[in-house]
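Researcher: Structure for this, please.
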Amino acid sequence: MTPVSSQSVHVLEVRGDFACFTRPELKVERYSYPLPTPSAARGVFEAIYFKPEFYWQIARIATLKPPSYIALRRNEVKDKASSRAVQEWMSGKSPPEPLWADGDKALLGTDMKGRTQRQTIALRQPHFLLSARIVPRPGKESQQRAYDEQFIRRAKQGKCFHQPALGAREFVAFFRLLDSQDVIPAPAEYTQDLGLMLYDVFDLRKTNVSDAKPYISLFRARVAHGVLDVPEFDSHEVLKPEMMKGD
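Model: Predicted structure, token format:
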């Protein structure tokens, strides 16, 4: 097994057929950033290994090829099940009710269909290097090495809690863990100032991120020679809601 240190940075080579990391200002007709957002990159690592006792801090995102876009039209379901309804279904308090993607008036009770077709400008054949490290919660620092070793074991064996995705669930991500013995692919010659980019949709300082309320943070993203360096979540470079209350 690859030796790990107290501040190990893990590197994943990630690729897929398509990817869409939607810019929030263009959500209705989805248009992808050229690189994953830190929250999307975090999702790839969490799909492989996650515990509430730590969070993933993304350090660097690199693209191994210049961005290539493709226009797609995708059918999307308009409605979504509420968490309260799902809990009632699971406890048996009420029967499950399907979300209809299509049907006639006799089935839906309305002439409005349950789906909509939207334009998506997605990335074609995306190929990235994602670098991140595990940050233990207060009081769990002594478990750092165990967390790192467990992630390495799982990633080397291709294990994951669920298949990682590249922005949308149908855009499957395939991953490979790189270590010191591997030849690290060179980033693409691609430079661009992306302006304000979504950093994350949760407060990573919260113990249980999955149950936390939405907490939108942003940062100024600059890609230099194919590499996007990601600041620490606690850095002043990451704009958080409390920093913008006075505006």
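Researcher: Any notable elements?
Model: The CA atoms of residues 217 and 240 lie 5 Å apart. DSSP finds four helices and twelve strands in the chain.
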